[in-house]
Amino acid sequence: MNIFKDSLQKQNPFDKYFFWIVMLISGLGLLSFVSASLGILAKSESKFYGVLFNQIVLGFIFGLLVLWIFARIPYTFWRKYSFYIFLASVVLTLCVFVPGLGFSHGGARRWISIGPISFQPAEALKIAFVIYFSAWLAWTRKRQEDIKFRIIPLFIILLVVASSLLFQPDTKSLILITISACGMLFTSGVSWKKILIIGVIGFGAITILAFVRPYVMDRIKTFINPASDPRGSSYQLQQSLIAIGSGGAFGRGLGQSVQKFSYLPEPQGDSIFAVIGEEFGFLGTTILLTLYVFFAIRGFKIALRAPDTFSRYLVVGLVTLLTAQSFLNIASLVGLFPLTGVPLVFISHGGTALMVALGAVGIILNVSRYTKKTVV
Questions:
Q1: 255, 261, 278, 292: which is closest to 333 by C-alpha?
Q2: Is 312 helix (H, G, I), strand (E, B) or coil?
Q3: 308: which DSSP letter?
Q4: Which domain does 241 fall in, by range?
Q5: What is the rounded distance in angstroms from the CA atom of residue 208 to the CA atom of residue 201?
Q6: How far is 274 from 208, CA to CA, in rounded Å?
Q7: pLDDT tens digits for range 322-372
Q8: Is residue 277 part of a domain?
Q9: Cis omega (within 30 of 0) for bond into 74
């Protein structure tokens, strides 16, 4: 079988505006990533070059290759094999619990190691969920009973996903998957009231989880009172606010961050937005936020003119997933949302995450080739 065989009639070249928005974010991200990683260089030169290789070669360059391949695969391929893709991603995610294959880091068991390569299978699970749920919603589009055919199946699918994520634990991925699912449900015609009910149920689940898992409660307390534990659970937020605040209007300049050396936890990872704020100031962070907004708007325009319901749900789900993750990261570092630990899309450290995100962009670009009218 040739998955590149295109049975659809192409109407447009891929959406170049969407592509270049992603490239601009990624370009700014690579500059910021190299700068944020200088703190590693001060401690270990070999680790510094290893981190750069993982991000630039495995993440960005291989990611561009994956983007190019996925942009050539007709989007109908994903619908045809959606169940098998989702099933394979769940099995792969469960492999983190296999001795000798999965390993722990920072108190969580989220990684698989194969030789010199390590990755988080949950990144692929998020994309696989969007593909499978898009196919399910497209299949039920003529059925009017939302509870029976859309909402109850969603809870069943989320239960399967939760069973593989919460024991790692990886609460943030489950939250992002739920947000993307709500965006897809709304696009399919489910009312705001029913989506609000899902949100209330989700809030209740997080409340229960906070009493079961102390680290969740600590993050909620930090959100309510950022000064509650400055040497413990509030430390990251405190240092992030210091970094962003010290950047002023125009920043200290590229490479001039002080916080990244000894204060910010994982400055090249979850906290990289704080480094950007310190080095590029209010102007730089505003430009970055604007690019993410343009990313969302352009993506939703592609979804609006998608050729069928499956591709519409697919694009909405992917754009919502990537945008929500980006804004959750930013909001948590400025104290507008509890700390989640989600990386900043296209920018934070994580070769697998970057490659998967660029692969998702490739899927969206393929859909853009079949839009009913050229997106302007």
A1: 278
A2: helix
A3: S
A4: 77-111+121-342
A5: 11
A6: 31
A7: 999 999 999 988 888 888 778 899 998 888 889 999 999 999 999 999 987
A8: yes
A9: no
Question: Which DSSP string corresponds to 248-276?
Answer: TTT-S-TT--SHHHHTSSSTTTTTHHHHH
Q: Is residue 66 part of a domain?
A: no
Buried b or exposed e, range 23-60, using 16+ CB within 10 angstroms? ebbbebbbbbbbbbbbbbbeeeeeebeebbebbbebbb
What's the mean pLDDT when you consider all of the chain? Answer: 86
Tens of pLDDT, residue by residue over 259-294, are 888 788 888 888 899 999 999 999 999 999 999 999
Domain-located, residue 318? yes
Measured over the CA atoms of residue 135, residue 141, residue 142 and residue 144, the dihedral's sign is: positive
HSE of 49, CA atoms in CB hemisphere, 13 A: 2
Q: How many domains does the chain have?
A: 1
With left for phi above 0 and alpha for psi between -120 and 50, is residue 171 left, alpha or beta? alpha
Please state, in angstroms and as integers, the Cα–Cα distance from residue 225 to each residue in 220, 230, 234, 332, 337, following that order: 9, 10, 8, 13, 12
Q: For residue 20, give the DSSP letter.
A: H
Taking alpha carbons only, the member of 332, 223, 319 closest to residue 270 is 332
113-159 pLDDT, tens digit each: 776 677 788 899 999 999 999 999 999 877 766 777 788 889 999 99
Specify the 3-state DSSP secondary structure of 151: helix
CA–CA gap between residue 289 and residue 114 (Å, rounded): 36
> pTM here?
0.91
Give yes or no for a contact between 121 and 350, defined as CB atoms under 8 angstroms apart.
Answer: no
